[in-house]
Design goal:
It contains 12 helices and 18 strands. It is an alpha/beta fold. A 5-stranded mixed beta sheet has the order 6-7-8-11-12. It has a 4-stranded mixed beta sheet with strand order 14-15-17-16, sandwiched between helices.
């Protein structure tokens, strides 16, 4: 399948996900803050919720390729060169773990066991080594972003997610899925950081990047410059609040259609002069301050946008539902999105804009015969439970990393 994403809402063809496993059960009350979780997660219920999300995607799009990222990493490590590269990266980037003495033992692990060690932080084959788990792997979005025919490999801002970045780095360099784009991939070096939740691909010509608590100014400028060298005509940088509740741009802003977005008003519509346009001219970057994100989008794309309020008009509802990822929706196709069913005020607001609402169970039971037509269904929100999943601070977009979409 061709690696290509030129829209946030083009019909989905291929996506990377990760159904939570033992790594989330290894999070304790003592380590949850260090591991960036607000609470400990009950693995069994989290799995059920995540699998319902996957069932919705597969029911809506029977031909879609849904890849488990753990399998992707295991397949990557079938290559001896990839195993050596990852182990060396781990040793160099996690010096405090003193893994050099067990370099050979790590290199000799089977592909599956090396993957499990990287995710769970332990293996029976090397009982003397124990690392913290990587429960945030659930949020595959943050590991990379396909932009056009290129891929930006994230560099995590937090130590708790560094191992995920190293895994994705190895996969892009060595997995056959990326063979046509690996040589042209964008990597972030040194102390800079950028995460996939801050990168939104609006069109082949326009990309949004959030300057958040997880994406540094120098990291985003490095990525933006390379994107423009590879064909993107304009990058809009959005300065967003640097706090836990809005850790990435997609926690306060996502596209639901070609001309509609779900937004958290206090951080988007109520802020001004926080958007900077970047364009390249003869190798130099030209910057221009924009009055708002809405006006910048309308100017760049030549049509009006409707910003639908996460939580509706009530400030308390806005705050509550942004916290539970009401603005973090994921588009399966133009006007067809999925999100946590608990965000009732957000979806009532979407109904006012012509969206129908179906629960995931209702949707799966109705269309398990394959009769659903995503091209003719109209505007639709499909909801699923996320009471356990949202404890990790991420919604439907956070849990999905598209690597291929149809052009609009």
């Amino acid at each position: 399948m061709k690696i290509q994403v030129t829209s946030e809402v083009g019909k989905l063809k291929g996506v990377l996900t990760h159904t939570p496993g033992p790594e989330v059960s290894l999070v304790s009350p003592e380590t949850k803050d260090q591991l960036l979780f607000d609470d400990i997660i009950f693995e069994e219920d989290a799995r059920v919720e995540h699998l319902e999300m996957l069932d919705i995607i597969k029911t809506a799009l029977p031909e879609v390729s849904v890849l488990e990222i753990q399998d992707l990493f295991t397949q990557t490590f079938e290559s001896e060169e990839a195993r050596l590269y990852f182990v060396e990266s781990l040793i160099v980037n996690q010096k405090e773990k003193n893994l050099a003495p067990v370099r050979k033992e790590l290199q000799d692990l089977s592909p599956g066991e090396l993957t499990r060690f990287a995710i769970h932080g332990r293996t029976d084959a090397i009982p003397s080594v124990e690392l913290l788990p990587t429960p945030n792997l659930l949020f595959t979005r943050d590991l990379a972003a396909v932009v056009g025919n290129s891929v930006v490999v994230s560099k995590a801002a937090k130590q708790a997610r560094l191992r995920e970045s190293l895994l994705m780095d190895a996969a892009v360099r060595y997995h056959p899925l990326y063979k046509d784009v690996s040589a042209d991939a964008i990597f972030i070096q040194g102390e800079d950081s950028i995460e996939g939740g801050d990168i939104l691909v609006v069109s082949k010509d326009l990309v949004l990047i959030g300057m958040s608590e997880r994406t540094s100014f120098s990291g985003l400028m490095h990525a933006a410059s390379q994107m423009m060298d590879k064909g993107v005509k304009q990058v809009l940088i959005i300065d967003i609040p640097k706090k836990r509740s809005s850790m990435h741009l997609d926690t306060i802003f996502t596209f639901s259609n070609t001309n509609e977005c779900v937004v958290y008003p206090p951080a988007i519509t109520e802020r001004t002069d926080n958007v900077v346009s970047l364009r390249k001219n003869n190798g130099s970057i030209i910057t221009e301050l924009k009055p708002s994100l809405k006006k910048a989008l309308e100017e760049s794309l030549g049509h009006e946008f409707t910003f639908i309020k996460c939580g509706g008009d009530n400030l308390t509802a806005q705050q509550r539902e942004q916290w539970s990822d009401g603005a973090n929706t994921f588009a399966l196709a133009p006007g067809v999105i999925i999100g946590y069913e608990r965000n009732v005020h957000t979806f009532r607001e979407m109904q006012k804009h012509g969206y129908s609402i179906m629960t995931g169970k209702e949707f799966i039971n109705t269309y398990k015969d394959g009769s659903f037509n995503i091209d003719t269904c109209g505007k639709l929100v499909i909801t699923f439970e996320g009471h356990e999943l949202c404890r990790g601070r991420g919604g439907a977009r956070c849990m999905t990393q598209p690597f291929s979409r149809f052009d609009i």
